[in-house]
Design a protein that fits this description.
CATH superfamily: P-loop containing nucleotide triphosphate hydrolases
Helix content: 40-55%
CATH class: Alpha Beta
Number of strands: 7
Oligomer: single chain
Largest sheet: 5 strands, parallel
Shape: globular
Number of domains: 1
Order of helices and strands: EHEHHEEHHEEHHHEH
CATH architecture: 3-Layer(aba) Sandwich
Length: 190
């Protein structure tokens, strides 16, 4: 089965690209959704509580507090990342093995940082102007300082571009975005 990785910084429009691609008959594996599910598991909650006790209350992870800790301190980010990322990657592998559709789309914010892109047949980097990424995330309810803190920990697009097979600049409207995706899909799906 053909595997297409979709990566890019926060607010670039990865999920939108994934949904449009899926409309051609593909299935999506959403790394963010996998992470959200993992953060509800007792085993993970216990590990997070050991590292960041202030981010757990009543056996539940306080996601905003955890994000504040992790994205405002490099050492905390590294600890969190080394705990959660191997588990996320293992879950993505399990999901890939379970699926048997026409093609698979792996929507992963850290596609290039984690090396996950190496397991894909094709990789698409979704890019957008920084101001547009920030505006999109503010619309979703994020504060500007939180967005900037998270972007700081993501791979610079200059680096990701070297690893991508295709780059989509998502700075205009959805109609133009869909046209770009169709062109790429025709190249992939020969």
């Amino acid at each position: 089965m053909l595997k297409i990785g979709i990566g890019g910084n926060l607010g670039s429009g990865k999920s939108t690209v994934a949904k449009i691609l899926a409309s051609f008959g593909g299935e999506i594996i959403d790394a963010d959704e996998i992470t959200h599910q993992l953060l509800k598991k007792d085993k993970i909650i216990k590990k997070i509580k050991k590292l960041f006790p202030e981010a757990v209350k009543n056996n539940q992870i306080l996601k905003k507090r955890l994000a504040n800790i992790v994205f405002n301190d490099e050492e905390s980010y590294k600890k969190y990342y080394s705990l959660i990322m191997p588990i996320i990657l293992k879950e993505i592998d399990k999901e890939i093995k379970k699926r048997n559709g026409k093609f698979l789309i792996v929507d992963a914010p850290l596609l290039f940082e984690t090396g996950l892109y190496k397991k894909m047949d094709y990789n698409i980097l979704v890019s957008a102007k920084k101001s547009l990424k920030i505006a999109r995330m503010i619309k979703k309810g994020f504060k500007k300082e939180d967005i900037l803190a998270r972007l700081k920990f993501q791979m610079p697009e200059k680096e990701a571009k070297k690893k991508a097979d295709f780059i989509i600049y998502n700075n205009k409207d959805k109609k133009l975005l869909k046209e770009k995706i169709i062109k790429i899909f025709r190249k992939i799906w020969k």
